[in-house]
Amino acid sequence: MAISNPGGNLNSVPAPTKAALETNYLDLASTANQGWAQQYVPDLMEKEAEVFGPRTISGFLAQVGAEEAMTADQVVWSEQGRLHLSYKGHVDNATQQEGNSNEEGGTFEIETDIDGNDASGSGTSVAHGIRVNDMVLIADANATVRGLVTAVQNDLISVALYDAGNTTATFANAGLAAGSGSDATILVYGSEFKKGDNYNGQASRTANEPQFKSFQNKPIIMKDYYEVSGSDASRIGWVEVSSEMGQSGYLWYLKAEADTRARFTDYIEMAMLESVLTDADESKVDAFLGTDGTTLSGTEGLFAAIESRGNVTTGVTGVNAATDLAEFDAILAEFDKQGAIEEYMMFVNRATSLAVDDMLASMNSYGAGGTSYGVFNNDEDMALNLGFSGFRRGSYDFYKSDFRYLNDLATRGGINDRDTINAIRGVMIPAGMSSVYDQTVGQSIKRPFLHVRYRASQTDDRRMKSWVTGSVGAATSALDAMQLHFLSERCLVTQGANNFMLMK
Fold first, then answer.
1. Helix, strand or coil for residue 147?
2. pTM surpassing 0.85?
């Protein structure tokens, strides 16, 4: 089905033109526009028509995040690692390592932790937390066995099996595949000691310390301004204009000023979503901005953070409701692996929103009445008033909302239409707080999963600055104009990105 765009010829894109035209100031001299300066007063519709509807997209971060001040050139946070010990690797051989070959079992060679980070250590260092006397589960595609750790030598873990169902309880006889080409997982599930055994001070049983991963982001400085001459600022038009900021009147500059403010507010939001850091300090962007050799340009936005450290799905496309349901359940399974945050905000484009609706409609009641609406103070009406609809799947509560930014042709919607392969269809954001380690206070604290950091001190608050210069109103200079300036310096902190989901 073809959809025409009758408004395609409208002059809807802002331009720096200062001439009095029918598209900005009313041209009273020209007759090409049905002659505004006529002998007789025309039947004039004074109210400006907003043909593109509500045009701003700001408010997304206000709904899902928070804002905190910062005073440095970067923000650094540390995320706590997993609590339990689980690693990937392979069964090294059928018997234990040299010096322990008289015992039944085998050797497990650790390669990475369960999330794929290097855990093998180097030289005499040990990057994992498995210790002697730990009880472990070892599994590959063929079998699962239980054993006791008898020796640890760097990344080599000697294990004696409790029961392999064989007279000779070796890894091989238990069904585990040996060799570097095999994939296996080892999990610590407890420990066992003999009576009177004391492990204090033993090199093989040192205390495990909590592990943290540190991440950082840097703020960017955004600016814009609007200028109108002193003469034009005093002009009275025939058409009443209004703005998203609630201003109205017959002074055109009120409209242009408010539009500039609204557009800048949207730029702030869009930058927090779309921004990326430059790849290297040799980039031309760094050279242009004068950051060569000091710091990278740009900042890490939400989409980049999720693609780098989070989860990405291409499922739930609306092709088939049953298939979409299976794909959605696969998303839940991935969330289960990451800690099972129970409440999620879903911001999706129109097509994905309809696909989710069709998926839910194929189920009887689809958990109606089971949604807790906890993030909305358990108030369903509040959620609906804010444009969210809730549903439950498994143990998860989801609050879905159409995200205008992903639909509007003049924002991401137009980019998605052009590049359908890499189109961003939505994002799932965990609601609530996450625990992070604050290096300043030396303890774990709670922070929203997603929040903004802006530069501020007792001297200057750069969250959202605006000021006026020129000779109009309270004169600040000899410039025969009014200049309205806007500035913001901020960055986004995406904590626990492993709990986020980007829909592409």
1. strand
2. no
